[in-house]
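=== RUN LOG ===
request id: a7f3
mode: sequence -> structure
chains: 1
length: 125
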Amino acid sequence: MARSVPPLADYCSATWPILAPPLTAEVSAAAVEGLVHLSDSVKCLVLNACYSDRIATQVKPHVAAVIGCTVEIGDDAAIAFTRAFYRAQRHGHPYRRAFVLTPNELQLNGMEDEAKTYEFVAGAA
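=== RESULT ===
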């Protein structure tokens, strides 16, 4: 039986990712872009790592949506964001709507500042 590949990929430093191992060092935008470009199944990329908004901008031509962090993000906030985003996806919300709903999860858990650190970038694919 063929293994299906999810249309979401998570590249992060805190949670178990779908696309790549946990980050222990800085990764170049070109490296992530090259990896995403090689995949024809990734439609949305969640860059749940500190200062990943620059990578989000470079990767956007290859995906429908990409989410990055504009500043440093704590592990608890990264995990809460990921859970809330994927939960919204499981409930059938499109990428942008799932992103809009997600900061509320952080706010409800006392992470007001972290709720403002994510950026949604509409992709070209």
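=== NOTES ===
The two ends are 28 Å apart (CA to CA).
The chain has four helices and four strands.
=== END ===
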